[in-house]
Amino acid sequence: MITLTLAEIADATGGTLHDAPDPQLPVTGRSASDSREVGPGGMFAAVAGARVDGHDFVDQAVAGGAVCVLATRPVGVPAVVVPDVTAALGHLAQRVLTRTGAQIIALTGSAGKTSTKDLLAQVLSRHGETVATPGSFNTEIGLPLTVLRAAASTRHLVLEMGARHRGDIAYLASLTPPQIGIVLNVGSAHVGEFGSREAIATAKSELVQALPPAADGGVALLNADDELVAAMATRTSAAVTTYGAGESADIRATSIELTAGRASFTLHTPHGTAPVTLQLLGAHQVHNALAAAAAAHAVGMDTGDIAEALSAAEPVSAGRLQVLERPDGVTIINDAFNANTESMRAGLEALTSIAGDRRTVAVLGEMKELGDTAAAAHTEVGRLVGDLGINVLVTVGTTTEMTALTDAARPSSPLRIESADDPDALLPLLNRLLTSGDVVLVKASKSVGLEKFANILHAEVPA
User: Fold this and answer.
1) CA torsion sign, 303 to 307 to 313 to 317?
2) What angle, 0 to 180 degrees and rounded to 10, lies between the N-to-C axes of helices 341-355 and 374-387?
3) Does the 4-85 domain belong in CATH 3.40.1390.10?
4) What is the Cα–Cα distance from 243 to 252, expressed in whole angstroms?
5) Which one of 3.40.50.450, 3.40.50.1010, 3.90.190.20, 3.50.50.60 gives the CATH number of domain 322-459?
6) Which of 115, 243, 253, 449 is most solvent-facing, going by the fewest CB within 10 Å?
7) What is the pLDDT of residues 331-346, one digit of tens each?
8) What is the H or E stretch that residue 281 is in?
9) Residue 139 DSSP symbol
Protein backbone atom coordinates (compact mmCIF):
# COMPACT_ATOMS: atom_id res chain seq x y z
CA MET A 1 0.00 0.00 0.00
CA ILE A 2 0.98 3.63 -0.42
CA THR A 3 1.87 5.32 2.85
CA LEU A 4 -0.01 8.52 3.61
CA THR A 5 0.48 10.89 6.53
CA LEU A 6 -2.42 12.32 8.52
CA ALA A 7 -1.74 15.68 6.88
CA GLU A 8 -1.94 14.12 3.42
CA ILE A 9 -5.21 12.37 4.29
CA ALA A 10 -6.67 15.64 5.56
CA ASP A 11 -5.55 17.42 2.39
CA ALA A 12 -7.01 14.73 0.09
CA THR A 13 -10.35 14.63 1.89
CA GLY A 14 -10.72 18.30 2.79
CA GLY A 15 -10.82 17.21 6.42
CA THR A 16 -9.57 18.73 9.67
CA LEU A 17 -7.12 17.11 12.06
CA HIS A 18 -8.28 16.58 15.66
CA ASP A 19 -6.36 15.14 18.63
CA ALA A 20 -3.41 14.61 16.27
CA PRO A 21 -0.19 16.02 17.79
CA ASP A 22 1.87 14.68 14.87
CA PRO A 23 0.38 15.57 11.45
CA GLN A 24 3.22 13.62 9.83
CA LEU A 25 2.19 10.37 11.50
CA PRO A 26 2.09 7.78 8.69
CA VAL A 27 -0.71 5.32 8.00
CA THR A 28 1.12 2.17 6.99
CA GLY A 29 -1.37 -0.62 7.68
CA ARG A 30 -4.64 -1.92 6.37
CA SER A 31 -7.57 0.49 6.48
CA ALA A 32 -11.10 -0.78 6.99
CA SER A 33 -14.64 0.23 7.90
CA ASP A 34 -14.94 -2.78 10.23
CA SER A 35 -13.09 -2.13 13.48
CA ARG A 36 -12.15 -5.82 13.67
CA GLU A 37 -10.36 -5.74 10.33
CA VAL A 38 -8.09 -2.71 10.70
CA GLY A 39 -4.45 -3.72 10.53
CA PRO A 40 -1.67 -2.42 12.79
CA GLY A 41 -0.81 1.08 11.63
CA GLY A 42 -4.05 1.35 9.67
CA MET A 43 -6.94 3.79 9.47
CA PHE A 44 -10.47 3.11 10.71
CA ALA A 45 -13.26 4.60 8.60
CA ALA A 46 -16.07 5.30 11.06
CA VAL A 47 -19.03 4.97 8.73
CA ALA A 48 -22.45 5.68 10.25
CA GLY A 49 -24.88 3.13 8.82
CA ALA A 50 -28.59 2.58 9.21
CA ARG A 51 -28.13 0.14 12.11
CA VAL A 52 -24.54 0.60 13.31
CA ASP A 53 -22.48 3.76 13.83
CA GLY A 54 -18.76 3.17 13.35
CA HIS A 55 -17.97 5.96 15.78
CA ASP A 56 -19.10 3.63 18.57
CA PHE A 57 -16.28 1.21 17.74
CA VAL A 58 -13.31 3.57 17.69
CA ASP A 59 -11.81 2.15 20.89
CA GLN A 60 -11.96 -1.38 19.46
CA ALA A 61 -10.26 -0.22 16.26
CA VAL A 62 -7.48 1.55 18.15
CA ALA A 63 -6.96 -1.52 20.35
CA GLY A 64 -6.53 -3.51 17.15
CA GLY A 65 -3.78 -1.21 15.90
CA ALA A 66 -5.50 1.71 14.16
CA VAL A 67 -3.39 4.88 14.34
CA CYS A 68 -6.11 7.24 13.14
CA VAL A 69 -9.82 7.50 12.42
CA LEU A 70 -11.71 9.00 9.51
CA ALA A 71 -14.77 10.42 11.24
CA THR A 72 -17.49 13.05 11.15
CA ARG A 73 -16.72 14.30 14.66
CA PRO A 74 -13.78 14.31 17.09
CA VAL A 75 -13.43 10.91 18.79
CA GLY A 76 -10.67 11.49 21.36
CA VAL A 77 -7.91 9.86 19.27
CA PRO A 78 -6.01 11.07 16.19
CA ALA A 79 -8.70 11.72 13.59
CA VAL A 80 -9.37 13.37 10.26
CA VAL A 81 -12.83 14.90 10.64
CA VAL A 82 -14.86 15.24 7.45
CA PRO A 83 -18.53 16.00 6.64
CA ASP A 84 -19.08 12.59 5.01
CA VAL A 85 -16.84 9.57 5.61
CA THR A 86 -18.02 7.69 2.51
CA ALA A 87 -17.36 10.64 0.22
CA ALA A 88 -13.99 11.19 1.92
CA LEU A 89 -12.98 7.59 1.18
CA GLY A 90 -13.71 8.27 -2.48
CA HIS A 91 -11.51 11.35 -2.49
CA LEU A 92 -8.76 9.43 -0.73
CA ALA A 93 -8.91 6.65 -3.33
CA GLN A 94 -8.53 9.22 -6.08
CA ARG A 95 -5.42 10.60 -4.38
CA VAL A 96 -3.89 7.13 -4.10
CA LEU A 97 -4.53 6.46 -7.79
CA THR A 98 -2.35 9.45 -8.70
CA ARG A 99 0.57 7.65 -7.06
CA THR A 100 0.20 4.27 -8.71
CA GLY A 101 0.38 3.36 -12.38
CA ALA A 102 -1.99 0.44 -11.96
CA GLN A 103 -4.25 -0.46 -14.87
CA ILE A 104 -7.86 -0.50 -13.63
CA ILE A 105 -10.03 -3.41 -14.74
CA ALA A 106 -13.64 -3.16 -13.55
CA LEU A 107 -16.39 -5.72 -13.81
CA THR A 108 -20.11 -5.83 -13.16
CA GLY A 109 -23.06 -8.14 -13.73
CA SER A 110 -26.11 -9.59 -12.04
CA ALA A 111 -24.33 -12.81 -11.05
CA GLY A 112 -20.79 -14.16 -10.97
CA LYS A 113 -18.98 -10.91 -10.21
CA THR A 114 -17.02 -12.18 -7.23
CA SER A 115 -16.17 -15.58 -8.75
CA THR A 116 -14.95 -13.90 -11.95
CA LYS A 117 -13.00 -11.30 -10.00
CA ASP A 118 -11.31 -14.05 -7.99
CA LEU A 119 -10.43 -15.94 -11.18
CA LEU A 120 -9.10 -12.84 -12.90
CA ALA A 121 -6.99 -11.79 -9.92
CA GLN A 122 -5.31 -15.20 -9.86
CA VAL A 123 -4.71 -15.14 -13.62
CA LEU A 124 -3.34 -11.59 -13.72
CA SER A 125 -1.05 -12.20 -10.74
CA ARG A 126 1.08 -14.22 -13.18
CA HIS A 127 1.39 -11.13 -15.37
CA GLY A 128 2.19 -8.60 -12.68
CA GLU A 129 1.43 -7.46 -9.15
CA THR A 130 -2.35 -7.48 -8.79
CA VAL A 131 -4.71 -6.06 -6.18
CA ALA A 132 -8.37 -7.09 -6.28
CA THR A 133 -11.53 -6.40 -4.35
CA PRO A 134 -11.66 -8.69 -1.28
CA GLY A 135 -14.88 -10.71 -1.07
CA SER A 136 -17.65 -8.63 -2.57
CA PHE A 137 -16.49 -5.16 -1.45
CA ASN A 138 -18.14 -3.60 -4.49
CA THR A 139 -19.82 -0.51 -3.03
CA GLU A 140 -18.94 3.15 -2.52
CA ILE A 141 -17.24 2.07 0.74
CA GLY A 142 -15.61 -1.21 -0.22
CA LEU A 143 -14.23 -0.06 -3.57
CA PRO A 144 -12.18 2.88 -2.20
CA LEU A 145 -10.87 0.68 0.62
CA THR A 146 -9.65 -1.74 -2.05
CA VAL A 147 -7.85 1.06 -3.86
CA LEU A 148 -6.08 1.99 -0.61
CA ARG A 149 -4.39 -1.43 -0.72
CA ALA A 150 -2.64 -0.59 -4.00
CA ALA A 151 1.08 0.19 -4.07
CA ALA A 152 3.25 2.12 -6.50
CA SER A 153 4.33 -1.26 -7.88
CA THR A 154 0.77 -2.55 -8.46
CA ARG A 155 0.31 -3.38 -12.14
CA HIS A 156 -3.36 -4.43 -12.19
CA LEU A 157 -6.21 -3.22 -10.00
CA VAL A 158 -9.28 -5.46 -10.36
CA LEU A 159 -12.44 -3.82 -9.06
CA GLU A 160 -15.87 -5.38 -8.70
CA MET A 161 -18.68 -2.83 -9.10
CA GLY A 162 -22.19 -3.45 -7.78
CA ALA A 163 -25.38 -1.47 -8.24
CA ARG A 164 -28.67 -1.19 -6.41
CA HIS A 165 -29.71 2.05 -8.11
CA ARG A 166 -29.15 3.76 -11.40
CA GLY A 167 -26.03 5.91 -11.15
CA ASP A 168 -24.20 3.68 -8.65
CA ILE A 169 -21.76 2.29 -11.21
CA ALA A 170 -21.27 5.68 -12.84
CA TYR A 171 -20.25 7.04 -9.44
CA LEU A 172 -17.83 4.19 -8.75
CA ALA A 173 -16.31 4.55 -12.20
CA SER A 174 -15.84 8.28 -11.62
CA LEU A 175 -13.79 7.48 -8.51
CA THR A 176 -11.67 4.85 -10.22
CA PRO A 177 -11.82 5.34 -14.01
CA PRO A 178 -11.32 1.91 -15.61
CA GLN A 179 -9.38 1.22 -18.79
CA ILE A 180 -11.00 -2.20 -19.23
CA GLY A 181 -14.63 -2.96 -18.37
CA ILE A 182 -16.29 -6.37 -18.20
CA VAL A 183 -20.07 -6.91 -18.19
CA LEU A 184 -20.98 -10.48 -17.29
CA ASN A 185 -24.75 -10.73 -17.57
CA VAL A 186 -28.09 -9.09 -16.89
CA GLY A 187 -30.27 -11.26 -14.68
CA SER A 188 -32.95 -10.99 -12.05
CA ALA A 189 -30.86 -9.85 -9.08
CA HIS A 190 -32.30 -6.57 -7.71
CA VAL A 191 -35.10 -6.56 -10.27
CA GLY A 192 -37.32 -5.46 -7.37
CA GLU A 193 -35.22 -2.30 -7.11
CA PHE A 194 -34.91 -1.58 -10.84
CA GLY A 195 -38.28 -2.81 -12.09
CA SER A 196 -37.10 -4.76 -15.14
CA ARG A 197 -34.10 -6.48 -16.70
CA GLU A 198 -33.93 -3.68 -19.26
CA ALA A 199 -33.55 -1.15 -16.45
CA ILE A 200 -30.83 -3.31 -14.91
CA ALA A 201 -29.06 -3.36 -18.29
CA THR A 202 -29.16 0.43 -18.40
CA ALA A 203 -27.51 0.58 -14.98
CA LYS A 204 -24.86 -2.00 -15.88
CA SER A 205 -24.07 -0.18 -19.13
CA GLU A 206 -22.79 2.76 -17.08
CA LEU A 207 -19.51 0.83 -16.86
CA VAL A 208 -18.89 0.65 -20.60
CA GLN A 209 -20.03 4.25 -21.02
CA ALA A 210 -17.32 5.29 -18.54
CA LEU A 211 -14.50 3.67 -20.53
CA PRO A 212 -12.10 5.82 -22.55
CA PRO A 213 -12.34 5.70 -26.35
CA ALA A 214 -10.59 2.90 -28.22
CA ALA A 215 -7.90 5.35 -29.36
CA ASP A 216 -7.03 5.97 -25.71
CA GLY A 217 -6.91 2.28 -24.77
CA GLY A 218 -10.47 1.67 -23.61
CA VAL A 219 -11.67 -1.93 -23.96
CA ALA A 220 -15.19 -3.24 -23.28
CA LEU A 221 -15.50 -7.00 -22.77
CA LEU A 222 -19.07 -8.14 -23.40
CA ASN A 223 -20.85 -11.49 -23.00
CA ALA A 224 -21.97 -12.37 -26.52
CA ASP A 225 -24.44 -14.95 -25.17
CA ASP A 226 -26.48 -12.36 -23.25
CA GLU A 227 -28.52 -10.19 -25.61
CA LEU A 228 -28.78 -7.28 -23.22
CA VAL A 229 -25.04 -7.30 -22.61
CA ALA A 230 -24.11 -7.71 -26.27
CA ALA A 231 -26.30 -4.70 -27.11
CA MET A 232 -24.07 -2.53 -24.91
CA ALA A 233 -21.56 -2.42 -27.78
CA THR A 234 -23.54 0.56 -29.10
CA ARG A 235 -23.20 2.41 -25.79
CA THR A 236 -19.42 2.67 -25.64
CA SER A 237 -16.64 4.37 -27.59
CA ALA A 238 -14.16 1.78 -26.33
CA ALA A 239 -12.95 -1.13 -28.44
CA VAL A 240 -15.30 -4.10 -28.02
CA THR A 241 -14.22 -7.71 -27.51
CA THR A 242 -16.86 -10.39 -27.08
CA TYR A 243 -16.68 -13.69 -25.25
CA GLY A 244 -19.02 -16.67 -25.11
CA ALA A 245 -19.78 -20.18 -26.27
CA GLY A 246 -20.89 -19.19 -29.78
CA GLU A 247 -18.66 -19.24 -32.84
CA SER A 248 -18.98 -15.48 -33.35
CA ALA A 249 -17.35 -14.60 -30.01
CA ASP A 250 -13.77 -13.29 -30.09
CA ILE A 251 -12.89 -15.28 -26.95
CA ARG A 252 -14.81 -18.56 -26.86
CA ALA A 253 -15.03 -22.07 -25.46
CA THR A 254 -15.56 -25.30 -27.37
CA SER A 255 -15.69 -28.97 -26.35
CA ILE A 256 -17.26 -28.09 -23.00
CA GLU A 257 -17.57 -31.08 -20.67
CA LEU A 258 -18.73 -31.38 -17.06
CA THR A 259 -17.20 -34.00 -14.79
CA ALA A 260 -18.26 -34.24 -11.14
CA GLY A 261 -19.52 -30.68 -11.31
CA ARG A 262 -16.36 -29.15 -12.80
CA ALA A 263 -16.01 -27.95 -16.37
CA SER A 264 -13.29 -28.46 -18.94
CA PHE A 265 -13.13 -26.83 -22.36
CA THR A 266 -10.89 -25.62 -25.14
CA LEU A 267 -10.11 -21.92 -24.92
CA HIS A 268 -9.96 -19.99 -28.20
CA THR A 269 -8.47 -16.52 -28.53
CA PRO A 270 -7.35 -14.62 -31.64
CA HIS A 271 -3.83 -15.84 -30.84
CA GLY A 272 -4.45 -19.57 -30.39
CA THR A 273 -6.11 -22.37 -28.45
CA ALA A 274 -5.38 -24.20 -25.19
CA PRO A 275 -7.15 -26.68 -22.89
CA VAL A 276 -8.67 -25.55 -19.59
CA THR A 277 -9.88 -27.66 -16.67
CA LEU A 278 -11.50 -25.58 -13.96
CA GLN A 279 -11.33 -26.33 -10.25
CA LEU A 280 -14.42 -24.22 -9.59
CA LEU A 281 -17.80 -25.92 -9.34
CA GLY A 282 -20.56 -25.40 -11.89
CA ALA A 283 -21.04 -25.24 -15.65
CA HIS A 284 -21.71 -21.50 -15.38
CA GLN A 285 -18.07 -21.01 -14.41
CA VAL A 286 -17.16 -21.44 -18.10
CA HIS A 287 -18.54 -17.97 -18.87
CA ASN A 288 -16.81 -16.53 -15.80
CA ALA A 289 -13.54 -18.08 -16.99
CA LEU A 290 -14.04 -16.69 -20.50
CA ALA A 291 -14.57 -13.20 -19.06
CA ALA A 292 -11.32 -13.54 -17.11
CA ALA A 293 -9.57 -14.88 -20.22
CA ALA A 294 -10.82 -11.94 -22.27
CA ALA A 295 -9.37 -9.48 -19.76
CA ALA A 296 -6.08 -11.35 -19.58
CA HIS A 297 -5.91 -11.38 -23.37
CA ALA A 298 -6.59 -7.63 -23.41
CA VAL A 299 -3.56 -6.94 -21.22
CA GLY A 300 -1.32 -9.08 -23.43
CA MET A 301 -1.13 -12.49 -21.79
CA ASP A 302 -0.37 -15.52 -23.95
CA THR A 303 -3.24 -17.96 -24.57
CA GLY A 304 -1.36 -20.90 -23.07
CA ASP A 305 -0.47 -18.92 -19.97
CA ILE A 306 -4.10 -17.83 -19.57
CA ALA A 307 -5.33 -21.43 -19.82
CA GLU A 308 -2.73 -22.68 -17.37
CA ALA A 309 -3.63 -19.96 -14.86
CA LEU A 310 -7.36 -20.63 -15.19
CA SER A 311 -6.79 -24.34 -14.60
CA ALA A 312 -4.75 -23.63 -11.47
CA ALA A 313 -7.16 -21.05 -10.02
CA GLU A 314 -8.89 -22.11 -6.82
CA PRO A 315 -12.11 -21.00 -5.10
CA VAL A 316 -11.33 -17.99 -2.94
CA SER A 317 -14.48 -16.34 -1.56
CA ALA A 318 -16.63 -18.36 0.85
CA GLY A 319 -20.32 -18.98 0.31
CA ARG A 320 -20.13 -19.34 -3.46
CA LEU A 321 -20.39 -23.00 -4.45
CA GLN A 322 -17.89 -23.76 -1.71
CA VAL A 323 -17.49 -27.51 -1.23
CA LEU A 324 -17.16 -28.68 2.40
CA GLU A 325 -16.55 -32.34 3.25
CA ARG A 326 -17.60 -33.82 6.61
CA PRO A 327 -15.81 -36.81 8.16
CA ASP A 328 -19.06 -38.79 8.12
CA GLY A 329 -19.20 -38.69 4.31
CA VAL A 330 -21.68 -35.82 3.90
CA THR A 331 -20.72 -33.22 1.27
CA ILE A 332 -22.00 -29.67 1.78
CA ILE A 333 -22.11 -27.10 -1.02
CA ASN A 334 -22.27 -23.68 0.61
CA ASP A 335 -23.76 -21.31 -1.97
CA ALA A 336 -25.67 -19.14 0.47
CA PHE A 337 -23.86 -15.85 0.01
CA ASN A 338 -26.76 -14.67 -2.13
CA ALA A 339 -29.44 -15.95 -4.51
CA ASN A 340 -31.46 -15.11 -7.58
CA THR A 341 -33.11 -17.26 -10.23
CA GLU A 342 -29.96 -17.65 -12.31
CA SER A 343 -27.70 -18.57 -9.41
CA MET A 344 -30.34 -20.96 -8.02
CA ARG A 345 -30.30 -22.82 -11.32
CA ALA A 346 -26.51 -22.91 -11.35
CA GLY A 347 -26.41 -24.21 -7.77
CA LEU A 348 -29.01 -26.92 -8.31
CA GLU A 349 -27.35 -28.08 -11.52
CA ALA A 350 -24.00 -28.20 -9.74
CA LEU A 351 -25.59 -30.24 -6.94
CA THR A 352 -26.83 -32.93 -9.32
CA SER A 353 -23.58 -32.96 -11.28
CA ILE A 354 -21.28 -33.39 -8.31
CA ALA A 355 -23.58 -35.94 -6.64
CA GLY A 356 -23.74 -38.44 -9.46
CA ASP A 357 -25.69 -41.37 -8.00
CA ARG A 358 -25.49 -40.06 -4.42
CA ARG A 359 -28.60 -38.67 -2.69
CA THR A 360 -29.18 -34.96 -3.32
CA VAL A 361 -30.57 -32.62 -0.65
CA ALA A 362 -31.47 -29.03 -1.55
CA VAL A 363 -31.78 -26.69 1.45
CA LEU A 364 -33.36 -23.56 -0.02
CA GLY A 365 -34.39 -20.23 1.44
CA GLU A 366 -36.04 -17.21 -0.11
CA MET A 367 -34.60 -15.15 -2.97
CA LYS A 368 -34.95 -11.50 -1.95
CA GLU A 369 -35.33 -8.24 -3.88
CA LEU A 370 -37.28 -9.72 -6.80
CA GLY A 371 -40.25 -7.37 -6.55
CA ASP A 372 -43.34 -8.36 -8.50
CA THR A 373 -41.49 -11.27 -10.09
CA ALA A 374 -40.87 -13.02 -6.75
CA ALA A 375 -43.73 -15.51 -6.85
CA ALA A 376 -43.04 -16.55 -10.45
CA ALA A 377 -39.30 -16.82 -9.77
CA HIS A 378 -39.82 -19.12 -6.78
CA THR A 379 -42.29 -21.21 -8.76
CA GLU A 380 -39.66 -21.58 -11.48
CA VAL A 381 -37.10 -22.80 -8.96
CA GLY A 382 -39.59 -25.28 -7.50
CA ARG A 383 -40.22 -26.76 -10.93
CA LEU A 384 -36.48 -26.97 -11.54
CA VAL A 385 -36.05 -28.97 -8.33
CA GLY A 386 -38.46 -31.52 -9.77
CA ASP A 387 -37.04 -31.45 -13.28
CA LEU A 388 -33.52 -32.15 -12.01
CA GLY A 389 -34.67 -35.10 -9.93
CA ILE A 390 -33.53 -33.71 -6.58
CA ASN A 391 -34.21 -36.34 -3.92
CA VAL A 392 -34.93 -34.14 -0.90
CA LEU A 393 -36.10 -30.53 -0.69
CA VAL A 394 -35.78 -28.70 2.64
CA THR A 395 -37.35 -25.24 2.61
CA VAL A 396 -36.51 -22.52 5.11
CA GLY A 397 -39.08 -19.88 5.98
CA THR A 398 -42.84 -19.50 5.87
CA THR A 399 -43.24 -16.73 3.31
CA THR A 400 -45.67 -16.92 0.41
CA GLU A 401 -42.67 -17.15 -1.93
CA MET A 402 -41.41 -20.31 -0.24
CA THR A 403 -44.92 -21.74 -0.36
CA ALA A 404 -44.94 -21.11 -4.12
CA LEU A 405 -41.60 -22.90 -4.46
CA THR A 406 -42.82 -25.90 -2.44
CA ASP A 407 -46.12 -26.13 -4.32
CA ALA A 408 -44.30 -26.12 -7.66
CA ALA A 409 -41.93 -28.87 -6.55
CA ARG A 410 -44.53 -31.04 -4.80
CA PRO A 411 -45.91 -32.86 -7.89
CA SER A 412 -42.46 -34.35 -8.50
CA SER A 413 -42.26 -37.93 -7.33
CA PRO A 414 -40.61 -39.38 -5.32
CA LEU A 415 -39.36 -36.02 -4.01
CA ARG A 416 -39.31 -35.81 -0.21
CA ILE A 417 -40.14 -32.37 1.18
CA GLU A 418 -39.27 -31.10 4.65
CA SER A 419 -39.55 -27.58 6.03
CA ALA A 420 -38.07 -25.42 8.76
CA ASP A 421 -39.57 -22.15 9.96
CA ASP A 422 -36.15 -20.54 10.33
CA PRO A 423 -32.42 -21.41 10.30
CA ASP A 424 -32.50 -22.25 14.03
CA ALA A 425 -34.80 -25.19 13.31
CA LEU A 426 -32.62 -26.52 10.51
CA LEU A 427 -29.82 -28.22 12.42
CA PRO A 428 -31.88 -30.78 14.35
CA LEU A 429 -33.92 -31.47 11.22
CA LEU A 430 -30.85 -32.14 9.09
CA ASN A 431 -29.16 -34.14 11.83
CA ARG A 432 -32.09 -36.55 11.65
CA LEU A 433 -32.25 -36.49 7.87
CA LEU A 434 -28.68 -36.70 6.58
CA THR A 435 -26.80 -39.95 6.07
CA SER A 436 -23.30 -40.74 4.83
CA GLY A 437 -22.91 -40.05 1.14
CA ASP A 438 -25.51 -37.28 0.93
CA VAL A 439 -24.68 -34.14 -1.05
CA VAL A 440 -26.34 -31.02 0.38
CA LEU A 441 -26.77 -27.66 -1.34
CA VAL A 442 -27.39 -24.71 1.01
CA LYS A 443 -28.73 -21.76 -0.98
CA ALA A 444 -30.64 -18.53 -0.21
CA SER A 445 -30.27 -14.79 -0.23
CA LYS A 446 -27.76 -13.55 2.30
CA SER A 447 -30.34 -11.97 4.60
CA VAL A 448 -31.93 -15.38 5.24
CA GLY A 449 -28.83 -16.30 7.24
CA LEU A 450 -27.87 -19.64 5.72
CA GLU A 451 -24.27 -18.75 4.84
CA LYS A 452 -23.11 -19.11 8.44
CA PHE A 453 -25.44 -22.06 8.93
CA ALA A 454 -23.60 -24.02 6.22
CA ASN A 455 -20.39 -23.71 8.22
CA ILE A 456 -22.21 -24.82 11.37
CA LEU A 457 -23.59 -27.82 9.50
CA HIS A 458 -20.11 -28.62 8.27
CA ALA A 459 -18.75 -28.66 11.81
CA GLU A 460 -21.68 -30.69 13.18
CA VAL A 461 -21.08 -34.41 12.94
CA PRO A 462 -23.80 -36.31 14.86
CA ALA A 463 -22.67 -39.07 17.19
Assistant:
1) positive
2) 10
3) yes
4) 5
5) 3.90.190.20
6) 449
7) 999 999 888 898 899 9
8) strand 272-281
9) S
